[in-house]
Amino acid sequence: MTTFEASTVGQAADGTDSSLIVMECFGVEVPTFQGEGPSCGHPALFIRLSRCNLTCAKCDTMESWDTSRFDLRKWSTKRSVADLSAWAASSPVELVVITGGEPLLQQARLVPLVRELLAAGKRVEFETNGTLAPLPELVVDGVRFNVSPKINSFGMDETRSVVPTALEAFAASGRAVFKFVASSISDLERIAELADAHQLAPVWVMPEGTTADAIVAASRALADAVTARHWYFTTRLHVLAFADARGR
After folding, report:
1. pLDDT of residue 11
2. CA 98, CA 126: separation in Å to the nearest integer?
3. Spacing of C-alpha 69 from chain mean position
4. I need a surface site. Which of 128, 204, 210, 241 has the fewest CB within 10 A?
5. Rounded Cα–Cα distance for residues 109 and 12 (Å)
């Protein structure tokens, strides 16, 4: 497996190269919605960027980073800011979700894209693992960060996946929510430790699972404990509605 450092992907120092490494875009030709978090159920467009700096064992998009199993050149293309903004503008849907992989690996090149999307009347949500602090140019009106730190049970060593300075930068931004994947009560205890240590709020919990039965079972196992902590709870609508099909 290969990871990608933040300095190696989409970080042109002078900002002149605006192309992004994209895995897929969807939501225009076949409509869909945001499937999780605070905007769950909202119509949405998705721009999924390739490459990640983590190697989570339970990742559902390994085609974006796992070179031991996938030829990343076959799973990604370079697309310009103009191309991506025109694609999004072709739809009346307001919400654009920029996900990955880890999208903030390419955040220097995302700045002009986000500006174009906001100018077109869109609002933007980033789905990020929370290991890279956002550039100030992205912490603006119309942008929100759905930060999903990966805990040990997700198959990732927390010495790599929990970066206190980055999490605290998101918390201080006032534009972030913190969404954790959980499958057990012990996961909730670890989430509480992280939330207390780094002042993470609001906290959202999403049950782990890639099938409807697994999502329902995990939801029932966790729901009472989540409500007792006065946290938010989100399902995974893409799994329930579309059986986790790619491009939905």
Report:
1. 45
2. 5
3. 22
4. 210
5. 7
- Residues 211-240: pLDDT tens digits? 999 999 999 999 999 999 999 999 999 999
158 Cβ neighbours under 8 A, 6+ residues apart: 150, 151, 152
Domain assignment of residue 1, yes or no: no
| Assigned domain for 203 exists | yes
* Side-chain-side CA neighbours of residue 151 (13 Å): 21
Q: 100 with 64: CB under 8 angstroms?
A: yes
Residue 88 vs residues 23, 44, 80, 108, 166: alpha-carbon distances, Å: 15, 10, 13, 20, 29
Strand, coil or helix: what is 10? coil
> Closest Cα partner for 3 from 59, 80, 47?
59
pLDDT digits (tens, 9 = 90+) for 94-138: 999 999 999 999 999 999 999 999 999 999 999 999 999 999 999
Task: Point out the least confidently predicted range of 8-17, 31-40, 65-74, 182-191.
Answer: 8-17
List, as one string, the DSSP characters of 127-161: EE-S-SPPPGGGSSTTEEEEE-PPPGGGT--HHHH
User: Residue 28: in which H helix or E strand, if any?
Assistant: none
Q: Which helix (H) or strand (E) holds 53?
A: none
Whole-number average pLDDT of the chain: 92
Residue 81 pLDDT > 80, yes or no? yes
CATH number of 113's domain: 3.20.20.70
Task: Judge whether 119 lies within some domain.
Answer: yes
